[in-house]
Amino acid sequence: MKQILIIEDDPLIAELQKDYFGLHGIEAEIVHDGQAGLERALSGGFELLILDLQLPGVNGFEICRQVREKLDIPVLIVSAKNEELDKIRGFGLGADDFVTKPFSPSELVARAKAHLARYERFTKDRVKERSASDSSVLHVRGLTIHKAAYRVFVHDREAFLTTKEFEVLLFLAEHPNRVFSKEELFERIWGLASSGEIATVTVHISRIREKIEEDPSKPQFIGTVWGAGYRFTV
């Protein structure tokens, strides 16, 4: 059974989430305090985190930041804060999705299951043989992408990407010179069609550029095609 952690200070909302996840075969543990929730999340053993932003002790943004530094599990923010800046900040700190209260419990479960399925596939891939063959390594002008090992090097310097960042980069690199809109990338990478927040695509592209580009303001690998989307240039 899948194990997830819910950090939510409203007992009614937390229990509602737990009950709906339970109906779908997902076991949820609830923590109501931010500091306690952070410590519990970092203790490991969970495959997904449901996170509120307005919490006593430590707020959700800080929890997201610290969790992302140490863990690569999916993080879904569920919050009454609906400002665009809050969403962008959450995505920028590494959140995988943002659900606004009041929310549909069924939709929340559907999104969580989609992220769990993708995380499971990534985990299985990562435990495969790491001695990648030539066919599983991409070389593009000093950029080296090891598909099986989920590692990226820029001129022999390793660039540490999150799973989502790696998947975005790999997808674009495997489809060079083709333009993909934000909506297309969101659907391909997050697998949630237009039900999610496509702002996360912009944030992830920006973070990838910071890690692989010599000058992120003048990207050599992932370019912006204004009004259309993004293109990986070989």
TrEMBL record:
The keyword Phosphoprotein applies. GO terms for biological process: regulation of DNA-templated transcription. SUPFAM superfamilies: C-terminal effector domain of the bipartite response regulators, CheY-like. Keywords: DNA-binding, Phosphoprotein, Transcription, Transcription regulation, Two-component regulatory system. Signal peptide: none annotated. SMART domains: REC, Trans_reg_C. Residues 135-234 bind DNA. One of its GO terms (cellular component) is protein-DNA complex. This is Response regulator transcription factor. It comes from Paenibacillus albus.
